[in-house]
Amino acid sequence: MSAPAEPRDIRPLAGKRVVLGVTGSIAAYKAADLCSKLRQAGATVEVVMTAAAAQFVTPLTFQSLTANAVVSDMFLAAEAEAHVEVARRADALVIAPATADCIANLAHGQTPDMVTLTALATTAPVLVAPAMDSQMWAHPATRANVETLESRGVTFVGPASGRLASGRTGAGRLVEPVHILGALRAMLGKQQGDFAGRKVVVSAGGTQEPLDPVRFVGNRSTGKMGFAIAEAARDRGAAVTIVTGPVALETPYGVARVDVSTVAEMLEALTAATLDSDALVMSAAPADFRPESPAGQKMKKAPGQETMTVTLVKNPDILASLPAGGVRVGFAAETHDLAKHAVEKLASKRLDFIVANDVTAAGSGFGTDTNQVTLFHAGGTVEELPIMTKYAVAHAILDRVKALLQ
Ligand code: PMT
């Protein structure tokens, strides 16, 4: 068995330098939250602003959040040639919020301010999050400008629909910072990630097998492990589909989600999703058995009834039923004899490797943000990994999947 590996900085934007361009919209206050989220994700952030943006939020706010100087007037910038230097250093330029005026200037290569100057001077990928009134967003001039920019490779996220500053309702709201962050991670993954061009399918959550219209046979899976794998694969550039049982988690930006309830539905959805996939990571907890004859109406207790017997019948084994193809990774949720059971499942389910977790151990298994797993490979190798966040475990799994794909 190999020694536990040293966990590396697994934050999704670790080592990345993100330039955040802020333009003059009331939504500029949300850019402060985005700034903070970018830093928490590991990015070094530099902010450039228009003079109008500085009317809504002061440069000092961003300076405090980034620990970097903020440039809103290139003639007053401390650094000579700031417009070129900031642009040159960037791994990505995010413009949020982007006004209609800013989008028009970007489309026409005009540079009246530090944000558009930086955009013209950078070769880094550009993500634009628009914010404006719905009529401005729908205007043919804006539509044409967006089309021009998209044809040049600029990525747009949003706008969202909802209540606007004008009091109207419609498309034009800045999308929430968490989605801008997701879109940035997806954009960088597609351009620079080692899974770019790959399709990864992930299953997550537990299934619910109905007993009657209000009750079911289920388990404690929250979907956290599977969603972390989907997010990590998305960050590395994969096109990701997640097939999930009922869970209370938001879909990571850019991930295609298929909601299912029962094993039969999960099998059907995975059969379709894996037709052209490069890898399947099966972290869901499907029920091995289901009630034989679910009642059509809510079951009632009879007077004096003390016990109830339900006959369960075997569900299909999803992994064993899916046609072969691509890298196959299973999980083993164990409470005892982890290695013995994991190795049996590895063989019977025809997997490339299986990720075994002791679901009774502290910080592991159901509902936790961390997991301690042991990987059992088809060739006989065993790797015991240290306890890590589920996102870090996801990357460790994807590292092995990548090696198999090569
Ligand atoms: O969702 P969380 O709260 O984050 O919890 C994560 C987790 C504990 C659910 C996850 O880490 C995990 O262990 N998932 C596998 C759960 C499980 O069903 O394990 P199993 O040992 O019963 O099944 C072995 C493998 O066969 C699994 O890959 C499972 O998805 C698959 N299986 C199981 C039953 C079935 N009918 N068909 C299957 O394909």
Task: Explain the overall architecture.
The protein is built from 14 helices and 21 strands. It has two domains: 17-189, Flavin prenyltransferase-like (Rossmann fold), CATH 3.40.50.1950; 194-292 and 308-405, Rossmann fold, CATH 3.40.50.10300. The model has no long low-confidence stretch (mean pLDDT 94). The protein has 406 residues and is of the alpha/beta class.
Key terms:
406 residues, alpha/beta, Rossmann fold, eight-stranded mixed β-sheet, five-stranded parallel β-sheet, 14 helices, 21 strands
Describe the secondary-structure layout.
Layout: E1 17-22, H1 28-40, E2 44-49, H2 51-56, H3 59-66, H4 82-89, E3 92-98, H5 100-108, H6 114-121, E4 126-130, H7 134-138, H8 140-151, E5 155-156, E6 160-163, E7 169-173, H9 177-192, E8 199-204, E9 209-212, E10 215-217, H10 224-235, E11 239-244, E12 256-259, H11 263-273, E13 279-282, E14 289-291, E15 312-314, H12 318-321, E16 327-334, H13 338-348, E17 353-358, E18 370-371, E19 373-377, E20 382-384, E21 388-389, H14 390-405
Parallel strand pairs: 1-2, 1-3, 3-4, 4-5, 8-11, 8-13, 11-12, 13-16, 16-17
Antiparallel strand pairs: 6-7, 9-10, 14-15, 17-19, 18-21, 19-20
Helix pairs in contact: 1-3, 1-9, 4-6, 5-8, 10-14
Bound molecules: ligand PMT.
